[in-house]
Amino acid sequence: MNKQTTVTAQTRQNLIDAFWALYCEKRIEKITVKEITEKAGYNRGTFYQYFTDIYDVMEQIEESLIPAVHELPPISIPNESIGTPLNMFMALYEQNSKYYSVLLGDKGDPAFASKLKNSTKPIIRQAFLGKYDMDTVEFDFILEFILSAMIGLMSYWFIQGKILPAEELVSLIYDLMENGVMKRLQSKKV
């Protein structure tokens, strides 16, 4: 990599980091290009060399965090266990926790969870394809339920400061999906 390419990549990253620091403090519509460039130490013209506007910065961050289908590990479901997708989501969360914990939190982008679900649905759908004789519409609702639950619980886990060890969280999610919430509650009855 030549020196100019390195400087260009670093400048872009500095602008992204400045935006992200501001986004962690306030809503996107309250952030200005001027604030970003002052925080990063550049002028407005430099910002526009890399981004069209503030929403473009957010879009580029989100695109970098959403795995493409070909980037996801293959899922095999030998015993119809959903363990692999759980591990896949846990790895994604851990790798991108700085961003996921904010984007999927209360102050985040509501559309990001949908983007994340839509990027992973095809690989999970493929893993289950042909294993069940089920209406495709019903199966899509089941996938939405599973992915929403996994994303929701992992987001909550981050917000709560990872108070459960990761293995316990995965085990809890697996148990809830395998046995259901009511069975889990019944097993803990006093």
Automatic annotation (TrEMBL):
Q: What is this protein called?
A: TetR/AcrR family transcriptional regulator
Question: Where does the chain cross the membrane?
Answer: 141-159
Annotated HTH tetR-type domain residues:
9-69
Instruction: Establish whether keyword Cytoplasm is in the entry.
Output: no
Matching InterPro entries: Homeodomain-like_sf, HTH-type_Tx_Regulator, HTH_TetR, TetR_C_Firmicutes
Q: Which UniProt keywords apply?
A: DNA-binding, Membrane, Transmembrane, Transmembrane helix
DNA-binding region coordinates: 32-51
**Pfam families of this UniProt entry?**
TetR_C_8 (PF14278), TetR_N (PF00440)
Keyword Kinase annotated: no
